[in-house]
Amino acid sequence: MMLCALVMTGAARPVSAQESIRVVPLARDGSVLVSFNLADGFTEDVRAAIASGLRTTITYTVELRLEVPFWVDRTIAEAVVSSSVQYDNLTRRASVTRSVDGRADETKLLEDEASIRNWLTSLQRIPLFDTARLEANREYYIRVSARTQPRNSSIPWSSAVSGLARFTFLP
Description:
This protein is an alpha+beta fold. The protein has one domain (about 20-170). It has three helices and nine strands. It has helices spanning about 1-10, 45-50, 115-120; strands spanning about 20-30, 30-40, 55-65, 75-90, 95-100, 105-110, 120-130, 140-150, 160-170. The protein has a six-stranded antiparallel beta sheet with strand order 6-5-4-3-8-9. Strands 1-2-7 form a three-stranded antiparallel beta sheet. A hairpin with a 2-residue loop joins strand 5 and strand 6. The longest helix is centred in the first third of the chain and has 10 residues, at about 1-10.
């Protein structure tokens, strides 16, 4: 029984500031543009996995949600953004790929660690949602959660982090 209480306490623990995702939504030109940065997402485990040549992926689940008082919040739309890196030890270059909802969005070759870190942990003004489904002058929020692959932990929620930001849709 004590073990169950400890596990539940650990599962419900709040995400600390160093593990959070900074989210910035912007509604412009018929789209909701989403920018986010995974603070401290480039850990020693991630760096080691990349250096070993393993394909390393950070998958972000981005939800556009409407807060509903006294009820469960409603999900308006959802998108999945994946940033992957595969390091080649012979050429000392990393092939990086970004996909949105399973479709390849961008592919590059990078050589330095700072560029690889930025590619994996920071996304800027990606048009993920259409504003046609939004009501004027309503408050919405964007929730972003991230998980890494490969995982070095046996506890499934230990590598999941999240962040959110609210905005009012003004057409």
